[in-house]
Amino acid sequence: MIRSSHLRYLTDSFMVKLWSEYLNHLKSAPQSSLQQYTSVFVISQLLPLCDAIYDESAPGILSELLQTKFGILLRYRGNFHVASSDEDVAHI
Residue 57: what pLDDT? Predict the structure, then answer.
């Protein structure tokens, strides 16, 4: 049923709007280690997972949104290690 063109358009539009608002929030958030870790998680793991789950047959709507409108956030893709002075953790 969701594959119907009208419903598909509505769900695609909603998905793009929702993620646009969230990515805009990430883009405009003040720089901090928390913001960096959140961005790394969202851009490198959550967004690709949501993209694949949303449409297994043709993933890419969210990746395309990221590349076309939020290119500044691409630096967090695949960046699994963010340098921080708070990284020293005691090992027990």
Answer: 65
Predicted confidence (pLDDT) per residue in 28-66, tens digit: 999 999 999 999 999 999 999 999 888 776 668 999 999
From the list 63, 79, 56, the residue with the least C-alpha distance to 23 is 63
Where do we find the tokens 């958030």?
A: 29
Q: Give the whole-angstrom CA distance, residue 29 versus residue 35.
A: 7
Which secondary-structure segment (H or E) carries 33?
A: helix 33-41
Domain count, the chain: 1
Per the CB < 8 A criterion, the answer to whether 73 and 23 are in contact is: yes
14 domain-assigned? yes
